[in-house]
RNA sequence: UGGGCAGUCGCCAAGCGGUAAGGCAGCAGGUUUUGGUCCUGCCAUACGGGGGUUCGAAUCCUCCCUGCCCAGCCA
């Protein structure tokens, strides 16, 4: 697999400025970045920003990007997640070649370095329990107090640390701490814990270890061991940078990568917290991690978003240090832009009403040619059956049309896409007064949708032949949340108060043109004048299931809404 | 009220002392066998606010305001 190339000139951002400077000054000959997920959940669109950034920089500068699992906390991590993460990164279109790493690969080295720290008097074993450590840490405005165990001898620390490793102590009874400064205004520097006892089985190292290193200690060393040049992370780690640098300054590591922080992605109407996403899954608010309403890559993939669209989105949002909330509209734009070019057009009637052409012979069937994609002639053409009895969209008929209406109404000629001009002569209603059938006539000379006299027919509507059409289930999705920006939540409310009850509407009455009969899971189509749909894997012998990826823009609806 | 970071159009975001890119959204037209696409035009005398330096400031200095992050043996 090739990492996607791009001929677009990348937009300038502060990270590129740093890299340009480092390359120009000779600090680095080439760059090496890394995407370092913790395998404790599924990747979401926010991770996609980071993946595109890290792999994209490597691509643009002819460098390398590693995939490294930050797996230092065995009780939260699982192979299910490492598998899904690899699948998602690959699906997004990136290739880590043979550069697949795990922080757990460095456990031995990390341990050796810890002993060095101890031997140099820069780390000590502390007997304080979690509560006590917290009390000693002080507060934002009050300096911390030294641990009573802070000045143990090197020999005692070494002995204790080895016994921690060997399982002599209970979880929580002891920890290894860096000896830095309990009075630092930066809480991260107040003798942070670097090793804790956890008698848990690790998904890769099994039962080999009973102590596990903490993130701050592990991450910088992992970066250094891999020769990472630019270690890009999110804003909340800004305060950790002095600690990142401190460890690397104390240890005989091969190099000292530069940590650079950028603002994580927030999307309007979207919840991006891993913890809450997990709750949505566990509480069955959604149907799993890959529910098409989820902002996970698995969900977006199932919904029908293409990796190209997501990459384009990542490019367009830019990279900066200001907290922001990107409009969901931008993502939709990128999805539509890609689908417009690549999705074949088909006709599907979502809310069918019968249309009978009284002057069209009973039993006659014509196969009419239709282009598959006006944006792409190479997509070819297909044949669609036409007959006396059709279905059209209920919304495409109005008995008393508003001003500006150019769909069907009594006596008004409209074009059936790819077929004929028809004119409604009669409206048939059922006992409830609901329109049950439209009786029309057609112009035999308008075959294909045009006439020699060149008369203008403004309205064009889609249709299917009643007897040839096939049923399907349509899953129509909308935003999962009604609130745009979660920073604006009302006091006392939480995210569950903003769930959209209509985020999924199931349609089982639609009728599709027969060419869709053999559609395969994952395929994407434009249902003309409606939206883009993808074939859901739930499709089977019992019938087709489609997910609505995104609607088409609808300026008519917008204009009508503006009037009321 | 300790420390760190950030504030440029409704939403993103370039800009790095020489007089406000671009995209999305929006608005107005045009083309159109999708009220889709496409095309054209409009959309910040103004860069959180006040002072200051300078011939010249979004860019430098200064004070202030607002927002975000940090007190896990999570990452």
Descriptors:
564 residues; Rossmann fold; Glutamyl-tRNA Synthetase, domain 2; Ribosomal Protein L25, Chain P; 8-stranded mixed sheet; 7-stranded mixed sheet; elongated; RNA-binding
Brief write-up:
By secondary structure, the protein is an alpha/beta fold. Helices cover 26% and strands 22% of the residues.
Could you walk me through the main structural features you see in this protein, from its secondary elements to its overall organization?
With 564 residues, the chain is of the alpha/beta class. It has 3 domains: 14-264, 3-Layer(aba) Sandwich (Rossmann fold), CATH 3.40.50.620; 274-344 and 474-507 and 525-563, Glutamyl-tRNA Synthetase, domain 2 (Orthogonal Bundle), CATH 1.10.1160; 348-462, Ribosomal Protein L25, Chain P (Beta Barrel), CATH 2.40.240. It contains 13 helices and 26 strands. The chain has helices spanning 14-25, 45-60, 79-92, 107-119, 130-137, 154-165, 215-226, 241-250, 274-282, 297-303, 307-317, 328-342, 555-563; strands spanning 32-35, 64-69, 100-102, 123-126, 175-178, 193-197, 211-213, 230-234, 258-262, 344-346, 348-349, 352-357, 366-371, 381-386, 389-393, 413-416, 421-429, 435-443, 460-461, 463-465, 470-477, 504-507, 511-512, 524-527, 531-535, 544-551. Strands 10, 11, 21, 22, 23, 24, 25 and 26 form an 8-stranded mixed beta sheet that branches. Strands 19-16-17-18-12-15-20 form a 7-stranded mixed beta sheet, with no helix packed on it. The chain has a 4-stranded antiparallel beta sheet with strand order 4-5-6-7. The two termini are 52 Å apart. The model has no long low-confidence stretch (mean pLDDT 96). The protein binds one RNA strand of 75 nucleotides through helix 5, strand 5, strand 6, helix 7 and helix 12.
């Amino acid at each position: 697999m090739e990492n996607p190339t791009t001929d677009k000139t990348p937009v300038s951002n502060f990270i590129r400025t740093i890299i340009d400077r480092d390359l120009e000054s000779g600090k680095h000959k080439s760059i090496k970045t890394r995407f370092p997920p913790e395998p404790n959940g599924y990747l979401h669109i926010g991770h996609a920003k980071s993946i595109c950034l890290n792999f994209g920089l490597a691509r643009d500068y002819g460098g390398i990007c590693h995939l490294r699992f930050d797996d230092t906390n065995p009780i939260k991590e699982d192979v299910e997640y490492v598998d899904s993460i690899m699948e998602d990164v690959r699906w997004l279109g990136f290739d880590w070649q043979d550069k697949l790493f795990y922080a757990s690969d460095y456990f031995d080295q990390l341990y050796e370095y810890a002993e060095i720290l101890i031997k140099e008097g820069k780390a000590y074993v502390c007997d304080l329990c979690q509560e006590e450590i917290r009390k000693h840490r002080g507060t934002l405005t009050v300096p911390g107090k030294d641990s009573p165990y802070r000045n143990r001898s090197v020999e005692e620390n070494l002995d204790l640390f080895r016994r921690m490793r060997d399982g002599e102590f209970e979880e929580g009874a002891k920890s290894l701490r860096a000896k830095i400064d309990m009075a630092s205004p930066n809480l991260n520097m107040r003798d942070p814990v670097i090793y804790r006892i956890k008698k848990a089985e690790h998904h890769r190292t099994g039962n080999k270890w009973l102590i596990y290193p903490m993130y701050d200690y592990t991450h910088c060393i992992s970066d250094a061991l891999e020769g990472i040049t630019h270690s890009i992370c999110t804003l909340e780690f800004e305060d950790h940078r002095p600690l990142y640098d401190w460890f690397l300054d104390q240890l005989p590591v091969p190099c000292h990568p530069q940590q650079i922080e950028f603002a994580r992605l927030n999307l309007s109407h979207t919840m991006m917290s891993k913890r809450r996403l997990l709750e949505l899954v566990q509480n069955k608010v959604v149907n799993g991690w890959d529910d098409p309403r989820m902002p996970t890559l698995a969900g977006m993939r199932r919904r029908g978003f293409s990796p190209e669209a997501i990459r384009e989105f990542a490019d367009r949002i830019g990279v900066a240090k200001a907290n922001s909330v990107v409009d969901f509209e931008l993502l939709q734009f990128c999805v539509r832009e890609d689908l417009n070019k690549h999705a074949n057009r088909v006709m599907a009637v979502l809310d069918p009403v019968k249309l009978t052409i009284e002057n069209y012979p009973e039993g006659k069937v014509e196969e009419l040619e239709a282009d598959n994609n006006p944006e792409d002639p190479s997509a070819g053409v297909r044949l669609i059956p036409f007959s006396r009895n059709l279905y059209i969209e209920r919304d495409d008929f109005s008995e008393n049309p508003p001003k500006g209406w150019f769909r069907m109404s009594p006596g008004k000629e409209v074009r059936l896409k790819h077929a004929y001009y028809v004119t409604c002569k009669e409206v048939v209603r059922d006992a409830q007064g609901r329109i049950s059938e439209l009786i029309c006539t057609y112009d035999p000379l308008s075959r294909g949708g045009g006439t020699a006299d060149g008369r203008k027919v403004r309205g064009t509507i889609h249709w299917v032949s009643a007897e040839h059409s096939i049923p399907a289930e349509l899953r129509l999705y909308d935003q999962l949340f009604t609130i745009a920006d979660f920073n604006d939540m009302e006091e006392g409310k939480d995210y569950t108060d903003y769930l959209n009850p209509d985020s999924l509407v199931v349609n089982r009455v639609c009728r599709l043109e027969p060419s869709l009969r053999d559609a395969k899971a994952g395929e994407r189509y434009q249902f003309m004048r409606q939206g883009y749909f993808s074939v859901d894997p739930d499709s089977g012998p019992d019938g087709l299931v489609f997910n609505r990826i995104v609607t088409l823009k609808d300026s008519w609806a917008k204009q009508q809404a503006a009037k009321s």
